[in-house]
Structures are given as C-alpha cells and as structure tokens.
Specification:
Largest sheet: 7 strands, mixed
Radius of gyration: 13 Å
Order of helices and strands: EEEEEEEEEEE
Distance between the termini: 40 Å
Number of strands: 11
Mean pLDDT: 94
Strand content: over 45%
Structural class: mainly beta
Oligomer: single chain
Shape: globular
Length: 126
C-alpha cells in the first residue's frame, strides 16, 4: 500500500507556470508506476501524464504535450508535474495516482490505478 499527497496547486495567470508535487509514503516508491489525472468542474476525470517507476518511459495527453513535463525523484519519494504555458482550460483538480503494475491495462485510464491522492486545485486565470 502507498499513500499519496499532492501539493503545489494554486492560482496562476494564463501563460504562467506551476509545479505540482506528489509525495508518497508506505511501500517503496520506486516500485510504482505513477500518473497525473485532472478533473474540471462538471467534467469527467481525464488523463494527463504517466511515468514508469524507473523513469524509463513517459506518456502525455495530446492536450498537454509540449507544455507539461512529468518526472520523479525516487530518493525523495516524490513525483512532479511541471506545467508551463498554462491555459484557462487547464483549470482543474489535479490528482496523482500509482500502481505496482499495469497488468496489461492502458496506463492512461484511471481504473488502472488503485492508489490516489486527495488532489490539489489548479486555477488558471485568463
């Protein structure tokens, strides 16, 4: 089992940058694949980015490619999401998620991940 806590959310102007963090505790962090999802008011939760436990692979939603960067520091048990060139449509609650294995499932689907954080609010003003 792993516990996840997001931080770093806040209010930022369009075109600005924000860095989110996801701190993990419990089982060894390095053994988990990690992902970021987000959910805007009145909308379904959507995939943002994923990173393997060894940082060997990353994958991004088309809507954030070239603007967001996912990374992790296993020594600090922390995953990050660097968000640049933020747009109003990026406004959402951002969640980190973890799984020990994808079990052949799609890494960009929320039900793949059994462990979730509480979320951190990101608001981008236009």
């Amino acid at each position: 089992q792993v516990q996840l806590v997001e931080s770093g959310g806040g209010l930022v102007q369009a075109g600005g940058s924000l860095r989110l963090s996801c701190a993990a505790s419990g089982r060894t962090f390095s053994g988990y694949h990690m992902a970021w999802f987000r959910q805007a008011p009145g909308k379904a939760r959507e995939f943002v980015a994923v990173i393997t436990w060894s940082s060997s692979s990353t994958y991004y939603a088309d809507s954030v490619k070239g603007r967001f960067t996912i990374s992790r520091d296993n020594a600090k048990n922390t995953m990050y999401l660097q968000m640049n060139s933020l747009k109003a449509e990026d406004t959402a609650v951002y969640y980190c998620a973890a799984t020990t294995s994808w079990y052949g499932q799609s890494p960009n689907v929320d039900h793949t991940y059994p462990y979730w954080g509480q979320g951190t609010q990101v608001t981008v003003s236009s």
